Structures are given as C-alpha cells and as structure tokens.
Amino acid sequence: MTTTIASDQAPAAIGPYVQAKKFGNMLITSGQLPINHETKAMPDDVAEQALQSLMNVKAIVEEAGLTVGNIVKTTVFVKDLNDFAKVNEVYGAFFDKECGAYPARSCVEVARLPMDAKVEIEAIAVAE
C-alpha cells in the first residue's frame, strides 16, 4: 500500500503528480523545482536554485518522518552542465551539514526544465 506525502513546507506540485509516495520503508520524491514555498519565487542564481531544491526535498522527507540521512539516492537535473561545479559545491555542503554522508547520485544535463529552472532534484529515502 502506498501513501501520498504532501508537505506545506515545499511547493505544491505544478502538474498531475504528488510531492512523494511512501511504500513500506521507501520514499520516492518527485523532482523538486527550486521554488520557495512561501514566496512562490525561484531564485535566478544556479547555486541558490540547487539549495532551494534540496531544502524542498528535505521538507518532504521530513514530512514522511525521515531525515536527510535516510536519503540513499538522488538525481540532479541541470539545464547546463557548465554549472556542475557550483551545484556540486552547494550539494556537498548541504549533505555535510545535514548528515555528514552522501547518497548515491546521478547528475544529468537536460534540454529544459519546467518553469525554465536551472536545477531540479529528486530523491529516494529508506527508513532503517
């Protein structure tokens, strides 16, 4: 049986999907755009976008009763792979601060992201 997870600390889905689904001890998030849930705005800077996407993932993971330390896999989608170093720096600092460990990760360049975002991040977390 699956459970839909919805956090009011992350932006609502902008299409026909949910923020996350929990199945047993596994949580799978949808891709999180860098939208601030309070202002509904998206920063222009790619580093700020990466951090906002990660904060949105964190809010959803915590809504499901898990922590950032439970994240076992992320996929990072970037509009321009030339931004990889900036995104990587923010990503590393985020996981260092939150749990001191890194999940497995893929990072791919895409032609375009919704709302012309520069970054989108999805995650899989598992309760221990």
From TrEMBL:
One of its GO terms (molecular function) is deaminase activity. Pfam families: Ribonuc_L-PSP. PROSITE patterns: UPF0076. One of its GO terms (cellular component) is cytosol. NCBIfam families: Rid family detoxifying hydrolase (TIGR00004). Belongs to the RutC family. This is RidA family protein. The lineage of its organism: Bacteria, Pseudomonadati, Pseudomonadota, Gammaproteobacteria, Vibrionales.
